[in-house]
Each structure stands twice: as structure tokens, then as C-alpha cells.
Design a protein that fits this description.
- With 127 residues, the protein is an alpha/beta fold.
- 42% of the residues lie in helices and 31% in strands.
- It is built from five helices and five strands; from the N terminus they run ββαβαβαβαα.
- It starts with a strand and ends with a helix.
């Protein structure tokens, strides 16, 4: 399941993913991101992940495909989680997509929100 998090900014989207996320819920979440990209040209994302999503959860390949298709519309992408697997996959994905993508530990969520909202640092300077 997923739920939208209040970011305080229209072009900063936050989502929490926990347990199983069905293909239809995943498509719904992606639809929200697509609509925001259409509206603002570019968005910033924060995804809070608890553990490792299970069940029907879309594959990493599906997530990477979406990221590659929309990388120009996603300026920053923060993943907040408590799983070494999620951290590893985030680091791996960063090598395949041309966007500023970072993993943050659960206790670093405030820094993740600050980083996602920060408009004063270019992608190159923050790498």
C-alpha cells in the first residue's frame, strides 16, 4: 500500500510505501507523478519505504523504466528507508538514471526533505 505525504510544496511529492503495493496502486502512484510533471515540468520526489515491499510489488526493472522515461521531469529523488537492500538498489539505480538520486536512513528523513526541497544546489555540485 502507499499513501501520499504532505510535502508543503506542490512540485515536491512524497509517498510512503509499506508492505504490498499492487500493480494498480503502483500505476496510480505513477499517474500522480506524471500529472505533476505535466503541470510543473519538473518535480522532486521523496519515497519512504518500510522494509522491503512484498507480494505484487512492481519489479525494480519497472521502476527503473519509469525513472528513465521521466528522468528529465524528476530533479531530485530521495529514498528514505531502513533496508540495506533498498539502499543498495537505490545506489545501483543511481548509476542507470540521469537524475539526482539519494538514499537516506530513516533517522535522516528531515535531511532528505531538506535536500529534496533545496533549489540552491545543482545536480553536479551535490554529487
Amino acid at each position: 500500500m502507499y499513501r501520499r505525504l504532505d510535502s508543503g510544496d506542490d512540485d515536491v511529492l512524497g509517498f510512503e510505501v509499506e508492505g504490498t503495493i499492487s500493480q494498480s496502486s503502483f500505476e496510480e502512484l505513477l499517474g500522480e507523478v506524471r500529472r505533476a510533471i505535466d503541470r510543473f515540468s519538473a518535480v522532486r520526489l521523496l519515497i519512504r519505504v518500510h522494509g522491503w515491499p512484498t507480494g505484487e510489488t512492481p519489479t525494480l526493472a519497472e521502476r527503473l523504466r519509469f525513472a528513465k522515461e521521466h528522468f528529465g521531469g524528476i530533479e531530485r529523488y530521495a529514498v528514505v528507508g531502513d533496508s540495506r537492500v533498498v539502499e543498495y538498489l537505490t545506489t545501483l539505480a543511481d548509476a542507470f538514471v540521469d537524475m539526482d538520486l539519494r538514499f537516506f536512513e530513516v533517522d535522516e528523513e528531515e535531511q532528505a526533505w531538506a535536500w529534496v526541497r533545496d533549489r540552491g544546489t545543482s545536480q553536479e555540485a551535490s554529487a
